[in-house]
From TrEMBL:
Domain Tetrahydrofolate dehydrogenase/cyclohydrolase NAD(P)-binding: 19-90
PROSITE patterns: THF_DHG_CYH_2
Keywords: Hydrolase, Oxidoreductase
Superkingdom in the source lineage: Eukaryota
UniProt keyword Hydrolase, yes or no: yes
InterPro entries given in the database record: NAD(P)-bd_dom_sf, THF_DH/CycHdrlase, THF_DH/CycHdrlase_CS, THF_DH/CycHdrlase_NAD-bd_dom
Gene (UniProt): P0001A07.7
Protein name as catalogued: Tetrahydrofolate dehydrogenase/cyclohydrolase NAD(P)-binding domain-containing protein
Statement: the UniProt record of this protein carries the keyword Ion transport: no
UniProt organism field: Oryza sativa subsp. japonica (Rice)
UniProt-recorded Gene Ontology molecular function terms: hydrolase activity; methylenetetrahydrofolate dehydrogenase (NADP+) activity
Amino acid sequence: MVHHNPLPSSNCRFLGCQIKGDWIKPGAAVIDVGTNSISDPTRKSGYRLVGDVDFAEVSKVAGHLTPVPGGVGPMTVAMLLKNTVDGAKRGIVQ
């Protein structure tokens, strides 16, 4: 989602600015492609990954919602690699 105006600070919480449930049409499919690390002292690493969507809130409204981590990341990497190989092949042929 691209915003033409910056999000007001009232929409920001400790997790950052996240997509809220009342921004989503009921039953919509929401694909969260954001990846952000936030401090989490309960984790061995000291942080955890979250997306750009308030998962707990949006999951009550959306028909489908991809999680972060474990969502579309592997598909994004696969398509990036495919496009890189396709570009390299075009470069070799020319």
